[in-house]
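Inputs:
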Amino acid sequence: MLQFSKYQTAGILGLILLAALFAVPNLLNEEQRAALPDFVPKTTVNLGLDLQGGSYLLLSVDTEKVIDDRIRSLLGDIRREMRPSSAAGRARIAIESLTYNQESNRVILRVADPADLDEADERVRDVTRGGIGGALGLGTRAYAVSRTGGRIEVSMTQEAQQFYAREAVRDSIEVVRRRIDPAGNKEVSIQPQGADRIVVQVPGDEDPEALKAIINRTGQLSFHRHDPSVNLQDAMAGLVPPGRALCPMAEFDGTTRPSPSSGELCGPLDNASQLPMVLIEDAEVTGDMVENAWAEQNPDGAGFQISFRFDSRGARRFADYTQNNIGSIFAIVLDGEIISAPVIQSAITQGSGRITGDFSVQEASQTALLIRSGALPAELTTLEQRSVGAQLGADSVRAGSMALIIGFIAVIIYMVVSYGRFGIYADIALIANIVLIAGVLSLLGSTLTLPGIAGIVLTVGMAVDANVLIFERIREELRNGKAPINAAETGYQKAWSAILDANVTTFLAALIMFQLGAGPVRGFAITLAVGVVTSVFTAYVLTRLVAGSYLLGQRPKEMTL
Amino acid sequence: MHFKLVPDNTKIAFTRMRMAAAVFSAALIVGSIFSLYAFGLNFGIDFRGGVTIEVADSEPIDLGEVRAAVSGLGLGNVNVQNIRDFAGSEEAVVVFIEQQTVEDLPEGVDQATANEEAQQEARGQVLSALRELLGDDMEVRKIDVVGPTVSGELIRKGAIAVALAIAMMLLYIWFRFEWQFSLGAIIALIHDVVITMGMFAVTQLKFELAIIAAILTIVGYSMNDTVVVYDRVRENLRKYKQKPLADLLDLSINETLSRTFMTSVTTLLALIALAVFGGTVLRGFTLAMIWGILIGTYSSIFVASPLLLATGVKRDWSKQPAAATP
């Protein structure tokens, strides 16, 4: 039990040295780390946001709306498919009704003449034939078409729904990244979580308010024709003709208004102080045709403006449109509100334009960033926000390290007072344990949170438990009259089963915490779990090596513990 | 001679105190359940949803002024407290706003989304009110905003985690020992968890996510303590086949008593360091742990072991058939 071969000894000490090697970079600053030779690992423990300050946001992507939007655009496709086309050589099919049931996610088509049913079925199958990109492989259809009685039902397949939801999350992450980190030089982390969530972590003292203001807007931009033929009073009373939309003017008073509901161009009118406008729903030009946008001083007056440039397709469309509509009003709609509604003075053919209004510099540059970064596929809702100031983070690091050092010293002294020489052995194990924990955490590149530090402090208190079990056992054996070496042998042997059981239970608890816990609790679970494993090694193996070399080397006749 | 917390060869008849212990434990449990029912837990925003904002200023902050400024916003229940460091000087002021719900929504607006956004709006209002009161140089130390979805999930996950931890302990002890031990250990565990939660109900300390972590750690620790005693009981059952069970349990508890106290003391040393020097953020967690260690130590001596008397244990751990031993 106390005898170790040369190889075993080398193995044990080597393992601790290796851990030390992994732990060392944490003590150095960046320059010193860069100067290290190549064979030294350079990964360090990352400080959690609660220690370095920063913001954590849990966002939910409205994937239902994304799917909804797709199905709504399918409605248009089906309707178009039923029109006559000389190119495709097909006749008109009269539609009796084409409805979309949002609850059951189903499109139902009824044709006027039952004789057209087969032909209509054919055409619906044609228009829905497309797969959902190569990602799902061949033969995966986005829609299932079925016929019950006299109607044709189209529904999106489960695979397609999942695919589009995943795609929406992926696209949202891209857009959010472009918005938070346009230059790509910050240490932001934007990760998907579950089916429809995104976790955004931004370290540092950045204003969480500004951060959220820029994430929570969809950034849906489009250019619309004003329809002066609709009576505004009638429209406001609820009589909006089909294909038209009643849009509120943006207020720029810092409040965020409810966004438009699914399938709608414009948001609700509530509390708007300016009169709304009736617009034609189909956009003349859309935001995805805008190539670039930036804020600049308004050369003609006070305040700031947003200048933008279309891509070639947008430029052509905009030129055509402005040429044919000189003198009429068009509206620029952003997220359900009209941000500008100028009169077309002349044809705009150079492919660029500007949005004027009484913008402050922040409003203008934020709006420009929104337009530039592109629209989110769906609105993001903030489910959870945790922001910690850098000052509190630094305080926590100081307090946590202080607690660790003092707890450590207290336990070390107490062990020596209680067990003398063997207490020193246990303390050696304790120090080695801290080194091992630091090494393993660095190796895993894990994040150290304040609860994580608490986990380490707690491990310090609990790690000596295995040694206490062993030493108490050795005491008992000594009292029973055994010789020191023999007592130590038996002590180590007999304590093992209790050590194993005791640590497995703590490990299990840590495992559950990790599995079910949120961010900070996970940090605690990781250090606790790592600490349990390393402490068994140092307390049971390392102390045995040290104690064994003393006992077998000195062969003491008597021993007090 | 080294310092010994517990003298050698103690012979305390713990099992004879089991009636007193049972009364004591029953009183604590009844008191805990009563407090949980009567006062309830003071859930933090992790579980209740809402907004917490912690601010500090170079000058002392007048709590009354803050309360007045924030109450004026019409955001429902407002709670303003100050945080003091261990020496008693003020560090910061925390403002809690209860979870916001939106009523009378315009048509077509999703209720769930609107509720989530209402928390954000409340956060913005409180921040600007505080900024107006304290000036732009105030230090925003911490902002937590938890909406209804996440708070619901955290409650569910927390409850599942504690239940799952207890269940896994049950299975593990069953697997390593036998069901009588498993039952005793689990009753002791539930005892510890209930009394710890009772402490939170009585003191009205904030019950937040970190407390769930503390409870899980207590579960692990208390189990650890119990297992060490049980391990010795099992060993002694093999050694002394004729000894009355009560005496055997007493012997096992006394033999492991020194270890039980040593480990509790070292763990408490670390925890006290954390409570005194570890800053205000972890205080609730640390207090829960300290309480849990005390209760867990008590329960493994006075609850888990005497319970073996009630459940009865297999006396014969040898491989021979039962008929071969008297």
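Chain A has three domains: 6-53+389-554, 66-158, 216-386. Flag for discussion at group meeting.
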